Amino acid sequence: MNTTRTLCFVIAALSSYAALVYRLCQARRSWRDNAYRTLVVTLLLQCLTFTMGAVAMGGDSFLGVGNLAILLMHVSAVAFCVAAQIILLRWAADPEEAVRKARYWLITGIALSMLLIALFFVADGPGRPATDFNTGSGQPLVLVYLLVFIVSQAVPCVTIFRQCGPYARMTGKASLRQALRMLSVAAVILFLYCTCRTVNILTAAAGIDIGVWQLASNVFSAAGIVTLSLSLTTSSWEASAARLLEWAHSYRSYRALYPLWRDLYESSPDIVLEPPGSASVSDLNYRLHRRVIEIRDGWRDLRPYIDRTAPVAAADPGAGEEYRQAHAEAARIRQALDAKRAGTVPDLNKDAGDFDDRDTDNFSAEVAWLTQVAVVYRKLGKAG
To answer: Distance between CA atoms of 303 and 229, rounded to whole angstroms?
Structure first.
């Protein structure tokens, strides 16, 4: 179980450091912003919390003091929760309300930290085995210490969750709304961590061994911190991630259109404006537009060879209307290509018109439709 606990600490620490480094890269243009500085401090405390957790897993003493890493982990966790609450206030509350409530949270955080330090030394924390601070081991003062720590974590989770919903509905900024929603999810996961940790402590005090279920608190802690790290940085990477997803979607469509485009290009080489392969991947948007245009032009060149009276193989009876339409178009294209290669011009050909009942004004819809036709076209080729 120690391996799993250590792995959870490492995951939480890595996500924390990744978020911190990502935000520090923006220091030059954002350092004058108070909210940005508060965010950096919060991430530093988050990193310190899980760094101390990893140190505590590696040994019983730190700087020559027994269990000091555990105490520093807990105190920095309290400060981290307070800082996260202050960030939420700076994001969503009025400036005057944010200052007033931030002062309250600072005073509360300092008082809780002093109480934890006092309880730690009164309970002879430096002289105890480190395992006592996992479950309390039935020691009253250690139990009080641990329960105070858990309350210091659970209360901010509840308040953050309660505030995120109304604040998200109030804000008109999409990125902030997304960050607040992710923050509320992180608060729920971390509250589950607090619940599981309380169960671990109380069952151990009652002499009940819950076995591997003790690890649930570590799993929830790591998942909550990863979600929290994402929520604290989403305003910076959300737009980049959306562009990356859009690029990936365009690239998949570009590749899916290739078999249809290739056969149309071989049939009508004049449809291509530039030699194949002359553009780079960085010009994907241009290349996708060109591929769509060239497929349309190639299809128009096939109109004299499309036999209106020729039967078309039926699609799967359970398929939707759009798929059946795509199947019919793909089958006609294959028939027309075969007719053109053979030099056969049907008497009743389709010498006018376009793909049936499709909106060609919307490029995204056009790509989606042609991609579906291309996918069916490729399947028909394999079946043939």
So the answer is: 56
Torsions phi, psi for 104 (to 5 deg):
-60, -45
Buried b vs exposed e over 186-219: b needs ≥16 C-beta within 10 Å? Answer: bbbbbbbbbbbbbbbbeebbeeeeeeeebbbbbb
Cα–Cα distance for residue pair 59/53, rounded to 1 Å: 10
Give strand pairing partners of 65.
62
Phi, psi of 65 (to 5 degrees): -115, 125
Q: Where are the alpha helices (DSSP H) in 140-215?
A: 140-170, 174-205
Cα separation, 31 vs 14, in Å, equals 23
CA distance 89 to 97: 8
Q: Compute the distance between CA of residue 66 and CA of residue 225 in angstroms, rounded to an integer.
A: 27
> Is residue 353 very low, low, confident or very high in pLDDT (cuts 50, 70, 90)?
very low
Beta bridge partners of 349: 307
The per-residue pLDDT for range 83-132, each reduced to its tens digit, is 888 877 777 667 777 788 888 888 988 999 999 999 888 888 788 877 77
SS3 184: helix
CA 94 to chain centre: 29
Separation between Cα atoms, residue 289 and residue 286, nearest integer Å? 5
Residue carrying structure tokens 């499709």: 358
CB 260 within 8 A of CB 370: yes
Distance CA 333, CA 310 (A): 12
Mean pLDDT score, 267-289:
76
Q: Which helix (H) or strand (E) holds 65?
A: strand 65-66
Place of tokens 């998949």: 252
Taking the C-alpha atoms of residue 145 and residue 239, their distance in angstroms, rounded to an integer, is: 43
Roughly how many angstroms between the first and final C-alpha of the chain, as a whole number? 56
